[in-house]
Design goal:
By secondary structure, the chain is mainly alpha-helical. It is built from 2 helices and no strands. It is 96% helix and 0% strand. It is rod-shaped and about 170 Å long.
Length: 149
């Protein structure tokens, strides 16, 4: 029985040794993969730093250019607003002037109509006859005064 126990102890001992060897082997593998993961993380961090060093200045330049463009666009928009306000004011002035012209034409149309009626009432034949008669009277006087020259 002693032999049997000693075999069980040996078997248990061998099993413990095998387990320890397997544990050491697994620990070595785990250490290798941990070192590999740390190296990959370091490489990724280094790549990120390099990318930031390369990209940040160009991004800053792009942002500065975008700010300049926005400032110019704001200035252009202000000029456009001023121009639109001027055009609106001019349009209002033209509208007022058109209304004044309509009023002027309407008011003067009546006056022109009255003048035309008065011109129609004039007896041009009688006026021509009176002018001829006046000319006949003045001509002898002109001849008379012409002799004293």
């Amino acid at each position: 029985m002693n032999d049997n126990m000693s075999k069980e102890t040996n078997t248990g001992h061998e099993t413990s040794e095998e387990l320890l060897k397997e544990l050491v082997s697994n620990s070595g593998k785990q250490l290798f993969y941990t070192k590999l993961a740390a190296f990959v993380a370091f490489v990724a961090a280094a790549a990120l730093v390099v990318c930031l060093v390369i990209l940040v200045p160009s991004v800053v330049k792009t942002v500065n250019r975008a700010n300049e463009v926005m400032a110019k666009a704001s200035g252009t928009i202000e000029l456009a607003d001023t121009a639109i306000a001027s055009v609106t004011e001019m349009s209002n002035s033209i509208t007022v002037m058109g209304n004044n012209m309509d009023t002027f034409i309407t008011e003067n149309a009546e006056s022109v109509e009255q003048v035309m009626k008065k011109l129609d009432d004039i007896d041009f034949e009688g006026l021509n006859s009176a002018i001829k008669d006046l000319g006949d009277v003045v001509e002898p006087l002109a001849n008379f005064f012409g002799k004293f020259k």
